[in-house]
Amino acid sequence: MVDVRHKGEIDQGAIEGAILIDIRKENFLEQAKSLLNSDEPVYLYCKKGSRSTKAGTELLLTKEFTEVYYLTGGYTQWKQNQENP
Asked: What pTM, to 2 d.p., does this model score?
């Protein structure tokens, strides 16, 4: 699970065990390549979904990552689901 939000957002809460790789940083792809196994599925999330979609597109364009998934509704939806199961 990869959280592509920035540190200020993560300070307000995150999914336990998620790896932080800020999509806004110039070295996003380099960090992703060094921290993630391209042979395994990658699950991405941001606040609502748009940045994780952008991050996933960037990963797929490298042709190194072939299984990329997005958390629908992002962290906002995940948190609501946790509070109201």
From this structure: 0.91
